[in-house]
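User: Design a sequence. Structure:
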């Protein structure tokens, strides 16, 4: 019996396929958005290691809630700063199955403003 693929999983597969084809060996800026928090990681898929990470769960970013565009922007700035410290300038943006809108867009824009190129 085949399982039904959700629209989220379909988008995620489409994004990952595109990244594999056009990534060019660059690290991947992967994000995850839950109902309460935002998470971001810069991952080197060749070595299988995380080079930098940031989230709204961290002590210095904890506020009233992590589910706002302001919190997402703070995570974007922090991940850009940590990635540059790790020697990463260019990344491929992996939004997973999330739509490029709202908190996802705010995080991406803040990461670009922080110096990451994608």
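Assistant: Done.
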């Amino acid at each position: 019996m085949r399982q039904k693929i959700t629209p989220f999983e379909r988008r995620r597969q489409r994004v990952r396929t595109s990244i594999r084809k056009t990534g060019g060996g660059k690290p991947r800026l992967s994000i995850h958005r839950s109902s309460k928090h935002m998470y971001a990681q810069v991952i080197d898929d060749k070595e299988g290691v995380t080079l930098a990470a940031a989230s709204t769960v961290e002590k210095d970013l904890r506020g009233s809630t992590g589910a706002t565009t302001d919190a997402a922007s703070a995570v974007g700035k922090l991940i850009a700063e940590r990635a540059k410290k790790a020697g990463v300038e260019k990344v491929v943006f992996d939004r997973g199955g999330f739509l490029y809108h709202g908190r996802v867009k705010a995080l991406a824009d803040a990461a670009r403003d922080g110096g990451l190129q994608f």
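Residues 93 and 111 are 10 Å apart (CA to CA). The chain has one domain: 7-113.
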